[in-house]
Specification:
four-stranded antiparallel β-sheet, binds FE2/S2 (inorganic) cluster, 16 helices, alpha+beta, binds fe (ii) ion
């Protein structure tokens, strides 16, 4: 396999276009990043009952995430040990076993091979135990978020989350009983571009006033001092800030600029007034108002490298399909223990940004990919704000929202992984 001059390709304030266009780079990423790093596979509440399963991916590897009869989680490669067929085609369901459609080999939901048709044809030496499904060797759940890694040396999921953990906790703790429920469907979209374009954008407060102008204008027309006001005036003079964490995680925090009530800042929602009135009838005004604070987005973009983004009140998963093709899925979330009206409104609000905002981003991603095809223009610039580090550690700063420290930060983690073959030098 070709090795690359990573120090040349990833410099402090610029990265080379080939990182977005080169098939060989992409192939290496699928093991050095998607594989070695804890990668988000799904949420426990998607498979709440014994024998539930759902399909997912670890990079390009098809995976079945199962819960066995005893409630244990397994991440099994969806690949028959006979000749390689994917043994499960259902997106999700409940099954004690998976039977390969090609020659009928049967596997339990723990991955154990339990049946081989006409097994006498293999002779006495055939060992069933040698043909159990291969699996993602380490699977860990953090408060319902399930991650997998191929690496034996990757530290615990808690250590991996590091500084991002507190923000993830805050997102989960909006639920009255401290648990999210991910069983409310998803919004899916794919674009013709590299998966890292999503990361370049994930904590980018620079593009909002331009790429999302129509959305911000609409918000401001409705609410003169709406959330968009910060972006249209001067985001760097607003209370919004960005933060970077070790291992590539980033955080863009709008909440400080959003005033005391998130519900009052929410954009119009289909049925919003009726549901709020219904809740007030049942619970009284004060209790209803407090509960409705759980409905809107939390005013943060929390990005957990390499594939989990927490945006508004939902979970976005980044799934690379090819060097120039990426699948995005936005899972709506419910709050366990919340009033039913609040959870319905979370659904309606979850439909807002993918429809009104993400389409802008996806157009930019596709146009980036198109532009990056120009060999004569080699570099992607990410130097904004670097001067302000002034010799200090760029990664240790809380930065202004338009600062590209967030992009530099994930590329720092990425470079470490690509150079080391999939390990972090840091603890
Ligand atoms: S490929 Fe699965 S049984 Fe043959
Ligand atoms: Fe955006």
């Amino acid at each position: 396999m070709t090795e690359y001059a990573w120090d040349h390709l990833i410099q402090e304030g610029r990265v080379h276009r080939s990182l977005y266009t080169d098939e060989g780079v992409f192939a290496l990423e699928m093991t050095r990043v998607f594989g070695h790093v804890w990668t988000y596979l799904g949420h426990e509440t998607e498979i709440p009952n014994p024998n539930d399963f759902k399909l997912t991916k670890l990079g390009l590897r098809p995976v079945i995430l199962t819960r066995d009869a005893k409630g244990e989680l397994h991440a099994l490669f969806n690949r028959c040990m006979h000749r390689g067929v994917t043994i499960c085609a259902e997106h999700a369901g409940n099954a004690k076993r998976f039977v390969c459609p090609y020659h009928g080999w049967a596997y339990g939901n723990t991955g154990k091979l339990i049946g081989v048709p006409h097994s006498e044809g293999y002779g006495e030496a055939f060992e069933m135990g040698a043909f159990d499904l291969k699996r993602v060797p380490r699977v860990a759940s953090y408060r319902g978020f399930v991650f997998g890694t191929l690496s034996e040396t990757m530290p615990s999921i808690e250590d991996h989350l590091g500084g991002a953990r507190a923000a993830l906790d805050a997102f989960i703790d909006r639920a009255p009983v401290g648990q999210l429920i991910v069983r409310a469907g998803a919004y899916r979209g794919a674009f013709n571009g590299n998966w890292k374009l999503v990361w370049d954008n994930a904590a980018d407060g620079y593009h909002v006033q331009f790429a999302h102008k129509s959305l911000v204008d609409m918000t401001n027309k409705r609410y003169a001092q709406g959330r968009g006001a910060d972006y249209m005036a001067s985001p760097d003079n607003s209370p919004i800030y960005a933060e970077v964490f070790e291992r590539g995680h980033t955080f863009l925090h709008h909440r400080p600029g959003m005033g005391p009530s998130l519900w009052e800042r929410a954009r119009p929602t289909p049925g919003g007034e009726a549901y709020a009135a219904q809740l007030a009838d049942r619970r009284g005004d004060a209790e209803a108002r407090a509960a409705l604070e759980g409905a809107p987005g939390f005013g943060m973009n929390l990005n957990i490298f390499p594939n989990l983004l927490i945006i508004a009140n939902q979970i976005q998963v980044v799934e690379p399909l090819a060097v120039n093709r990426t699948q995005l899925t936005w899972y709506a979330t419910h709050l366990a223990g919340a009033e039913p009206e609040v959870n319905v409104l979370r659904m309606r609000i979850a439909e807002d940004f993918p429809n009104f905002g993400e389409v802008d981003d996806m157009e930019m991603f596709e146009r980036c990919q198109e532009g990056l095809a120009v060999p004569e223009a080699e570099w992607v610039d990410c130097s904004r704000g670097l001067y302000a580090a002034n010799g200090a550690d760029d990664a240790a700063r809380k930065v202004r929202p338009t600062d590209e420290a967030t992009m530099r930060n994930y590329f720092r983690a990425y470079k470490m992984l690509m150079q080391s073959g999939g390990a972090y030098a840091c603890s």
